[in-house]
Design brief:
By secondary structure, this protein is α+β, with helices and mostly antiparallel strands. The protein has a single domain, classed as Beta-Lactamase (2-Layer Sandwich), CATH 3.30.450. 44% of the residues lie in helices and 23% in strands. It has five helices and six strands, in the order αααβββαβββα. Helix 2 (26-41) packs antiparallel against helix 3 (47-61). The longest helix is centred in the N-terminal third of the chain and has 22 residues, at 2-23. The protein binds methionine sulfoxide. Methionine sulfoxide binds next to helix 4 and strand 6.
Amino acid sequence: MLCVFKAHLILWASFIRYWNMALLSKTEFYQQTLAQVKALITDETDLIANMANISALLFDALEQVNWVGFYRVHNQELVLGPFQGKVACIRIPLGKGVCGTAVTSASTQRIDDVHQFQGHIACDATTNSEIVIPVKLNNDIIAVLDIDSTSFDRFDKDDQQGLEAIVNALAYNLAQQQTVEY
Ligand code: SME
């Protein structure tokens, strides 16, 4: 009986949470999500753990996304890091695909229709739009945050700004450390 009551309580809590999120403007949503990210990573120095929690948080909070994760720059290529979603390509050469382009151009790639992006790497054929944000530490790019959606035009300027702020929080956390292992 107690278990049934608890299950109802959990269901209601998640319903209220999703309802609250749905009522937020995009700016408020990203302010709230950034605060949650900062709370998660502030006292944690392990990069992989922080990437794992950021992926999980964003995958849960963002609507219409089918993949959220990080690729790390390692030995002159991108290697799959913590993510949420279906299995994905493991290694991407720098300069290739949307992810590799984000590294070599040192800039966010916001792609409304991936089928129009020459060299797009389709890990999941159902993906139609994508955003990739480089993680910068000092003058190096050490990783990218990649988010995919099955909707076209899923990411606008507000999403870009909000997600860049989240990536900056991760970069700031790294920059505070004496020695960084990545
Ligand atoms: N589409 C990416 C590859 C990674 S997956 O989307 C997870 C790209 O073109 O680089």
